[in-house]
Design brief:
The chain contains 11 helices and 10 strands. It has about 260 residues and is an alpha/beta fold. The chain has one domain (about 20-55, about 70-260): Rossmann fold (3-Layer(aba) Sandwich), CATH 3.40.50.300. α5 (about 130-140) crosses α7 and α7 packs parallel to α8. The longest helix has 14 residues, at about 160-175. The radius of gyration is 18 Å and the shape is globular. The N and C termini lie far apart (about 45 Å). Bound molecules: adenosine-5'-diphosphate and magnesium ion (MG). The site of magnesium ion has 3 residues, from α1.
Length: about 260
């Protein structure tokens, strides 16, 4: 694994792109006969980080999958910038290009770092001409300094943390209006975690970022909003500082104290 020792430089020109405010109303989802999301409602502003926390099985990953259309069998209403995602122009494929989803395990393709970064762009002409975009997205993902001299090296030669940054860069290259991250640093070393958190914070200045984490310290560091979920429901949503200092619900207090939730 390669060490991540390059100086931190996540500042990159911001690509102006429509960012989405998000309104979720009465979202319910059944999987294999089980109600995984139960009448869930949330409103997120056009920019900023929301950390989603909660015990295993709370429905956090399922929520993200509904938002980018991987699950389509849900009931209720999800609106991005006032637009119902079921009626998204171009359908679910087009929605998925607008709502980037980064999984816990880094996903890189067996090709070069550069080819990975531009993988989602339509057309070889666009991919070939994408010099500026490659640098921009790699900077935004806090990876440029570490790979700028070896863009043609295989992506698989990167460390796990760098591969996760590359996954973020690839999502950014299609210029999404929203980013969903599902425990993006769960398997990474502290240095990579720090770099990715910095990148996430900067990206959240231009779009809504929903970040599932089981790391309460990370949720604290990310700032912004916290959504605490349990058993497919939102138990509490609050500004980060207030949530950790003065959780309003008994379930939240128990979760912060014992990392368990008994919300029946
Ligand atoms: N494909 C599936 N089929 C059936 N049940 C599922 C499936 N995916 C998740 N579940 C169940 O849905 C619930 C919520 O899962 P998930 O959204 O992954 O929770 P979290 O991400 O909070 O750990 C869990 O009880 C899980 O077992
Ligand atoms: Mg999950």
């Amino acid at each position: 694994m390669l060490p991540r020792t390059e100086p931190v430089n996540t500042r990159a020109p911001v690509q102006k792109q429509q960012a989405y405010g998000v309104e979720i109303a009465g979202l319910s989802l059944q999987l294999a006969g089980t109600e995984v999301l139960q009448n869930l409602s949330l409103v997120l502003p056009e920019t900023g980080i929301t950390a989603v926390i909660g015990p295993s099985g709370a429905g956090k990953s399922s929520l993200l999958r509904c938002l980018n259309g991987l699950y389509q069998q849900w009931r209720g209403e999800v609106r991005l910038q006032g637009r119902d995602i079921r009626r998204w122009p171009g359908g679910w494929d087009s929605l998925r290009r607008q709502v980037g989803l980064i999984a816990q395990k880094p996903c890189v393709f067996p090709c070069s770092i550069r080819a990975n970064a531009v993988f989602g762009m339509y057309g070889w002409r666009q991919r070939k001409k994408a010099h500026g975009s490659v640098e921009t997205v790699l900077r935004q993902a806090a990876l440029w300094q570490e790979v700028k001299d070896r863009l043609h090296a295989p992506a698989e030669s990167l460390s796990l943390g760098q591969q996760q940054s590359l996954s973020i860069a690839r999502a950014l290259a299609i210029r999404p209006g929203m980013l969903l991250l599902d425990e993006p640093t769960a398997s990474l070393d502290p240095r990579s975690k720090q770099l990715i958190e910095q990148a996430i914070k900067q990206l959240a200045e231009t779009m809504p970022v929903l970040c599932v984490t089981h790391d309460l310290e990370q949720a604290r560091r990310l700032g912004g909003e916290v959504v605490f979920m349990c058993e497919g429901r939102v138990i509490e949503q609050a500004a980060c500082e207030r949530f950790f200092a003065q959780p309003q619900r008994l379930e939240s207090r128990e979760f912060l104290r014992w990392s368990v939730c008994d919300c029946d």
